[in-house]
Design a protein that fits this description.
Keywords: Hydrolase, Lipid degradation, Lipid metabolism. This protein is of the alpha/beta class. Helices cover about 40% and strands about 15% of the residues. Helix 1 packs across helix 10 and helix 6 runs antiparallel to helix 7.
Length: about 300
């Protein structure tokens, strides 16, 4: 009984549900053998991995950004000004307060120092591939993993521009499986999907993009051993920190309901596997003798990020 591996997805304030899950697992003495997180899930994973205990209701004070509060205001004049910002600016918020919060929480801690194997997932803005961050400053990795396109600027990381890990895979099941540490429990904190007919061309384009992301999400979740879905209804807005308690309570309900199945996973026989990096050596092509060009697989790029 080595433990389970958690794949924690993004969702802003709905990430409080991850905190609830981790509390339930701790109370039930469920061992955690590895953690992979994206965006809000990366924050929850890193806090747990490093043993940093912050009450879910306090996270808003650490990470609340005045720029985001301004973006959420209602009113016709404000909506028009926001639309102008979308057209004229590359992003709507600098994210300074959030990055300061990450640094205050984690200081100089580095991912590779984590007592529990930890992956923080981001996405390469140029290629769209998932980037599994296994080394480097935790605070900077979290800033990259939560850099929502159009909201926050991308983060420069060793020659790459990184954005929110949800763009590549909303729940980082692939990263969790790469740890090869145990059965994977995927936690999706998305709102419940309510079908609606688009009223404008912009809404139609946004809904089409969201439908594509949901399809990719379903493919990723199918690879997990167990999926816990929040399915908040009515929806909890991504940056509405007043709903943190509701997200936590709902997350706790979902976690307690899933606890019997999680315990079953602990005693399921796990086949012996080769180290996860070994398969990349098998896939490395042989360069022609006349060519000095070397080849690198996608997996190797992720391994060295």
């Amino acid at each position: 009984m080595n433990g389970i591996v958690l794949a924690l997805g993004g969702g802003g304030v709905r990430g409080s549900a991850h905190m609830a899950l981790l509390d339930v697992l701790s109370e039930a003495n469920i061992p955690i053998a590895g953690l992979a997180g994206s965006s809000a899930g990366a924050l929850a994973a890193a806090l747990y991995a490093f043993g940093i205990r912050v009450h879910h209701s306090e996270l808003g004070e650490w990470l609340k950004d005045p720029e985001l509060e301004r973006l959420q205001k209602n009113g016709a004049i404000h909506q028009v000004s926001r639309l102008v910002d979308f057209i004229r600016r590359p992003y709507l918020a600098e994210g300074v307060k959030i990055r300061q919060g990450y640094r205050a929480l984690f200081g100089e801690r580095r991912i590779e120092e984590s007592p529990i194997p930890l992956v923080i997932q981001a996405c390469d803005l140029t290629t769209g591939e998932a980037v599994m961050l296994r080394a480097g400053p935790v605070a900077e990795a979290l800033a990259a993993s939560s850099a929502v396109p159009s909201i926050f600027p991308p983060v420069a990381w060793h020659g790459r521009l990184l954005i929110d890990g949800d763009v590549a895979e909303k729940v980082p099941v692939t990263a969790a499986k790469a740890l090869q540490a145990g059965p994977v429990v995927a936690v999706d904190v998305s709102n419940r999907v309510i079908p609606s007919e688009p009223r404008t061309a912009l809404e139609a384009a946004l809904q089409a993009g969201e439908a594509s992301r949901r399809r990719l999400l379903s493919i990723a979740l199918s690879q997990a051993d167990l999926v816990i879905a929040l399915e908040a209804d009515p929806p909890i807005e991504t940056f509405d920190y007043t709903k943190a308690q509701r997200a936590y309570e709902l997350g706790r309900q979902r976690a307690e309901a899933a606890l019997p199945r999680i315990k079953e996973l602990l005693f399921r026989p796990v086949p012996s596997r080769k180290p996860w990096w070994s398969r990349f050596a098998q896939l490395k092509p042989q360069a022609p003798k006349s060519s000095p060009v070397s080849h690198t697989t996608q997996g190797q790029k992720q391994h060295h990020s």
